[in-house]
Design a protein that fits this description.
single chain; Rossmann fold; Argininosuccinate synthetase, chain A, domain 2; 3 domains; 5-stranded parallel β-sheet; 5-stranded antiparallel β-sheet
């Protein structure tokens, strides 16, 4: 009789490395490790060898960074999504795609369950399990952090040593890090307490600390077609190439570092340090282009819906009727968001350096102080009489 199969969302980090021997101890099942390539820089051959050596019977490595860029990150950029007005959702955007790939492997292998290494206090358990449910609501979930005796990352390190599992984390550098094409997050250790100042130069991986940035500014030009970046400095690039290129350019100038206290889905506040250089630059350029090509009312609606959309994605609801509906609106607004944006980068700053579009709503004659054919200065008097009428009535009644 063949064994059951459990698909493990595997990263090769501390949590998932110790999960393989733990699963084998507690389940009579073959463990299939799935490490989804969403743009993180890894020696994939070494990751596979480690998974097999740790006890996995098979290893899958779907390469979907281009899908992440085109179908998840780009829609987030064109929607100007920032959770709580700040966080660009780097982790949250990758989770639904990883969940989709996990289910695909589970179906291919006939697995009975999917296992993840998310903690019981984190957001990702919600995102993974909601994403999995969207493709297979009957799939069983194994979440070791919610049931095993390991209570901390220090315990996890001791368990790894006991089982002979090699890990890169140490007591001194016990940070939990997540990397994909869009960003790198850092949590844990001395980062956890808001009271602690941290040495960014010792933590950041793809972004220079400000003191290490160049002393000369750099001009970058980004070309958009219907809200999607298609070229950098005149060179046509695919979405994932745009992000890779801008990560290097923006990272050099210290752009896109966020040290932030966020409200987790689970309810508590937590501190994290995020590096999102390329996407930060891309969103800044995109918002500037929209200021030129969208009407005031459209921008207002987008800003309102972006708050709701960002929260949906943060809470794991990428695959939902609400998200689909908002995205349909966002996509419709991008028909005229075409043009070129130049920004000057210097010491973490992104300064405007020129903006043009064939769909520009800015009219030099109308916006200037001189006469034009569309607006008569006397028209303003009637408008002011109408707009001040409520104020005058309130004053007459003694309400002001």
């Amino acid at each position: 009789m063949s064994k059951d199969k459990i698909v493990l969302a595997y990263s090769g980090g501390l949590d998932t490395s110790i999960t393989i021997p733990w699963l084998k101890e507690n389940y009579d099942a073959d463990i299939i490790a799935v490490c989804v390539d969403v743009g993180q820089k890894e020696d994939w051959e070494a990751v596979e060898k480690k998974a097999i050596a740790s006890g996995a019977s098979k290893f899958y490595n779907p390469h979907v960074a281009d899908v992440l860029a085109e179908e998840y990150i780009y829609p987030a950029i064109s929607s100007n999504l920032k959770y709580q007005g700040t966080y660009l959702l780097g982790t949250a955007l990758a989770r639904p795609l990883i969940a989709k790939e996990l289910v695909a492997v589970a179906h291919k292998e006939g697995a009975t369950a999917i296992c993840h290494g998310c903690t019981g206090k984190g957001n990702d358990q919600v995102r993974f399990e909601t994403g999995i449910a969207a493709f297979d609501p009957e799939m069983k979930i194994v979440a070791p952090w919610r049931i095993w005796d390991i209570k901390s990352r220090e315990d996890a390190l001791k368990y790894a040593e006991l089982k002979g599992v090699p890990v890169t984390s140490t007591i001194e550098k016990i940070y939990s890090e997540d990397e994909n094409l869009m960003h790198i997050s850092h949590e844990g250790g001395d980062i956890e307490s808001p009271k602690n100042a941290v040495d960014y130069s010792s933590i950041l991986n793809i972004t220079n600390a400000l003191e290490n940035t160049p002393d000369e500014a750099e001009i970058v030009e980004i070309t958009f077609e219907q809200g999607k970046a298609t070229a950098v400095n005149g060179e046509e690039l695919k979405p994932h190439e745009v992000l890779e290129t801008l990560n290097a350019i923006a990272g050099k100038h210290g752009i896109g570092v966020l040290d932030w206290i966020e409200d987790r889905t689970i309810g508590m506040k937590s501190r994290g340090i995020y590096e999102t250089p390329g996407a930060t630059l891309l969103m800044e350029a995109h918002e500037r282009l929209e200021s030129l090509t969208l009407t005031k009312e459209t921008i207002k609606l987008k800003q309102h819906l972006a708050v709701e959309f960002a929260e949906l994605i943060y809470n794991g609801q990428w695959y939902s009727m609400a998200s689909d509906s908002i995205l349909a609106f966002m996509n419709h607004t991008q028909k005229t968001v075409t043009g070129d944006v130049k920004l000057k980068l210097y010491k973490g700053n992104m300064l405007p350096h020129g903006l043009k579009s064939e769909f520009a709503l800015f009219d030099e004659d109308v916006s200037g102080f001189g006469e034009d054919d569309l607006f008569d200065h006397h028209d303003a008097e009637g408008y002011i009489n109408v707009i001040t009428l409520p104020t005058k009535i309130q004053k007459k009644l003694g309400l002001l």
